[in-house]
Structures are given as C-alpha cells and as structure tokens.
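Exam revision sheet. Question 4 asks you to relate a sequence to its structure. Input first:
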Amino acid sequence: MFIKDLLKEFTFDLQIKNYSKRTIETYNYNVGQLINFLETHHDISDVEDVSSLHIKKFIQYQKEIGNKPNYINTIIKSLRAFYSYLVNEEYVSLNALAKIKLLKEDKIVIKTFTDKIASMWQSTLNRRFFMLIKSAGIRPVNFLSLVQG
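Answer key, structure tokens:
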C-alpha cells in the first residue's frame, strides 16, 4: 500500500484520538520528510518495500544536511509512532524502526564562575555596600539588621 495514503490514515487516527494540532502537524511533517526521501533517493512508494536500512540512510541524510541529533531524534520518535500504527493496523508485519536507536545528544555544559571571579565579585559587592553605608549615613548596626532580617 502507498505510504502517502497510510500517512493520511495515520493523521486521521491521531485526530480521532484527540492529539493536539501541533503534534499531528509535527508527525505529518516528519513522516512526510521520510516519504519524500524514499521517493527521491530510492524510488520507493510502497510501505512494504521500506527496510531498516532505508531508515538508517534517511537518518544519515538528516545528519549530512546539518540537522542536530535532538531534532533527528524527534523525527525518529515520529517515525516510531507511525510504524507502531502500521504494525497495529497490520499494514506491515515487521517494524522497520524496531532496532533503530536514538542518537546521542550533545550535553549542554553551563559555564559557572571560577573562584577567582567569584571572589572578585564579592570584593566589589563589599565595596559597594561600604560606599552605600558611608554615603547614605546609615549606621552599621542598622545596615546589619537590614541584611540579616
């Protein structure tokens, strides 16, 4: 059966299950990317002709065009949902994404202050508080009660 027809049926099923409009659009777009890739690069339009090798080539293609691993993982998750639907509805006997794993995503490392920078900020802060006390005429006892309480 044609993959495009099955995508329409899958989209209809998602609407019946009351998925959000945004989720349906994302699934539709991501599966549509696979369909376009299969038609242009492998001349495949029938769902039974798709193998896990084609899916891996699609993932490789996504990497080559510069998509980041977390975006490609979103595509893989959409394709998994689509293929789970196809298996449940018995359009395919084997899930082509069963052994496809998510890509390793880059960890975001947040740079923190070094001890030197932290002590520099602390000394600047202490100087500012001293200047505030001096220029405003605040007694040190009153200032300490503001800071502590």
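Marking note for examiners. The mean pLDDT is 89.
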